[in-house]
Amino acid sequence: MTGNTKTVRFGILGCAHIARKVARAIGLAPGATLGAIASRSKEKAERFAAENGFPESVRIYGSYDQVLEDADVDAVYVPLPTSLHVRWAVMAAGRKKHVLVEKPAALDVAELDLILEAVESNGVQFMDGSMWLHHPRTAHIHQLFSVPRSANSIGPIRFIRSTSTMPVTPEFLASDIRVKPELDGLGALGDLAWYCIGASLWAKGYQLPTTVTALPDVTRNSAGVILSITASLLWDQPNQTVATIHSSFLSHISIDLAICGSDGSVHLRDFIIPYQETSASFDLTFGAKFVDLHIGWNVKPEEVHVANELPQEALLVQEFSRLVAGIRDCGSQPSSKWPEISRKTQLVVDAVKKSLELGCKPVTL
């Protein structure tokens, strides 16, 4: 091995747009470094490296296999189309490479299980690219969900509402991989609703909902790929909670998350990508009531600010690298937390899809 053995060396499979963001994050994250980049042609990889100012030490390959064969690569980041995740993640795990895969993790839970079986049998770490989970704001808010109740708890969660929408161009609708059934067949359900479903599960401590129901307002393109989707999730124990999610390529940008308990509520307007890199905020309301004649409120939401030293994507890379270094250098076992989060999210994605196929009937989990 070359270089600092305490550093986790990443290889990136593909030059997708999101790979620019993660490559930057690898450069910012303590304990991580970019070792290699590959595309299906070396010329494209060279161009990508030049455009992003990669150091000369980064090895450039014209095939993904070459990254997996590189003994100096500890972990691979897979930003390929979802239909290719299972092939390359399983191959990477077989070469003892740790696997950071872009979301959605797979096309369905059967494919994801193939990936998770491969990483488990090879003793490597798995994580998906849900960056917002690694922002300190997320941990700060989670303290408000404490059970049993405490003085700063919003109480049992009763209602969750989340949106992930963005307006796309005609070019996107014509040619982006996220609208191609053979590449990313889940469309907006995989690309955007993954966040909304993940946020709902996170708020409920990753307890799976009792039932999942797609609403009939789905919009598809001519190839049948989902462009807009709304669904509801219902938990009936230990206390009833309902979540509504809406994800769309056809609406103005909205990444809202509202969580209402019996005693208070939390509201984020930028839960997936904060308005700025260096801090993020949320609205917190306790004990709100309408004043006499219902002409106002007795309290205004408190705006809570949470600073962060690193962007959330660098915090994701830092956490992943910490786990990988523990396995490589200290004989630690891979963390099961992140595979379990991905699998539960994928189970709900599958249930929404199944509900659509059944004519929007409830699907029991």
TrEMBL record:
Chain ranges of the GFO/IDH/MocA-like oxidoreductase domain: 151-266
Coiled-coil intervals: none
Membrane-spanning residues: none
Residue ranges occupied by any Gfo/Idh/MocA-like oxidoreductase N-terminal domain in the UniProt entry: 8-127
SUPFAM superfamilies: Glyceraldehyde-3-phosphate dehydrogenase-like, C-terminal domain, NAD(P)-binding Rossmann-fold domains
Highest taxon of source: Eukaryota
Molecular function terms from GO: nucleotide binding
InterPro entries: Gfo/Idh/MocA-like_OxRdtase_N (IPR000683), GFO_IDH_MocA-like_dom (IPR055170), NAD(P)-bd_dom_sf (IPR036291)
Homology family: Belongs to the Gfo/Idh/MocA family.
Protein name: Gfo/Idh/MocA-like oxidoreductase N-terminal domain-containing protein
